[in-house]
Write a structure and sequence with these properties.
The radius of gyration is 21 Å and the shape is elongated. It has three helices and no strands. The chain starts with 12 loop residues before the first helix and ends in an 8-residue tail after the last helix. The protein has about 120 residues and is an all-alpha fold.
Length: about 120
């Protein structure tokens, strides 16, 4: 329990320890999220190269809609705000499309596409 409600006073040692434990868990989760996103983007880069080789469009609105619907359902079952999950996925999809457009452009210019 805190000895001050201003946030600047001394904090009980047990509270500091619990806060440190929770923050360590958050840091570990953040690291896992970053590594999972890196793996996801490695896969989407391969998709981008495949699309470029076969002159497929960078975006696939039908798949994107299915993925958003799927992620919203997963979020609901995980007790996460589906609207937040959708915003997060839309952000990722926009970045993937940007990468796919660059890969397609690089392929069309005869340049070797850059790796991310």
């Amino acid at each position: 329990m805190t000895t001050s409600n201003t946030g600047t006073g001394d904090v009980d040692a047990a509270v500091r320890e619990e806060l440190a434990r929770l923050r360590d868990s958050i840091d570990n989760i953040d690291a896992a999220v970053v590594h999972m996103l890196a793996e996801r983007f490695k896969c989407t880069q391969q998709v981008g190269h495949l699309k470029a080789r076969h002159q497929l469009p960078p975006a696939d609105p039908t798949r994107e809609a299915r993925q958003i619907e799927r992620l919203r359902a997963l979020a609901e079952s995980a007790k996460l705000d589906p609207a937040f999950a959708e915003k997060f996925l839309n952000f990722i999809i926009a970045e993937v499309i940007r990468h796919h457009e660059r890969i397609a452009e690089d392929s069309g210019n005869g340049r070797a596409p850059e790796a991310d």
